[in-house]
Amino acid sequence: MVAARLPSAHTEGMTRTVAALQRLDPAAAALAVSSQADDAWTLEFLHALESRVRARPLERLMATWDLSAAGAGRVFGVTRQAVAKWRGSGVPDDRAVALADLSAATDVLERYVRRDRIPAVVRRPAEVLGGRSLLDLAEAGRYDEVRRGAATMLDLRRVAP
């Protein structure tokens, strides 16, 4: 984090500035920041901020599903080095839909399954998935099926009373 490298007095000033911006609506905060900086800096700042925000769903997926960088690489069909880069700069646009489907599946899992059980659930073959696991489907690039499969697996209406 950049703030960790700033002098203490500067960090305190930045904390006050951020707190002041948070009291504004986002459009007013954006106007306040962009009016004080040149366009090139504002665009660079926006890109850095977007990258940080876009990296969070990947971190959540990796933590919840208990995936290493190599495991996440298998899910997205890339190397572990690419995943490491994404963790710092965000997932590229061509993987955004895949990550959104996996995030939606994770939402369902977190709602109905104890968090510590999710890694086992995503690795367990399920009859409703044709004998495959959610992780198998993800590694095959079938992200939409992962999203729908998580909802189907945990649909309590399927269970007879």
Description:
- This protein has a domain at 55-158.
- 68% of the residues lie in helices and 0% in strands.
- The protein is built from nine helices and no strands.
- The protein has helices at 8-22, 26-35, 39-65, 69-76, 80-89, 96-112, 118-123, 134-139, 143-153.
- The radius of gyration is 20 Å and the shape is elongated.
- The termini are far apart.
Q: Strand percentage, roughly? A: under 5%
Radius of gyration: 20 Å
**Number of DSSP strand runs:** 0
User: What is the overall silhouette?
Assistant: elongated
Largest sheet: none
H/I helix tally? 9
Mean pLDDT: 87
Uncertain parts: none
Structural class determined from secondary elements: mainly alpha
Give the helix level as a range of percent.
55-70%
Please give the alpha-carbon distance between the first and last residues.
Answer: 52 Å
In N-to-C order, the SSE pattern is HHHHHHHHH
List keywords for this structure.
mainly alpha; single chain; 161 residues; 9 helices
Strand and helix layout:
Layout: H1 8-22, H2 26-35, H3 39-65, H4 69-76, H5 80-89, H6 96-112, H7 118-123, H8 134-139, H9 143-153
Helix pairs in contact: 3-5, 3-6, 4-5, 6-9
State the gist of this model.
The chain has 161 residues and is mainly alpha-helical. It has nine helices and no strands.
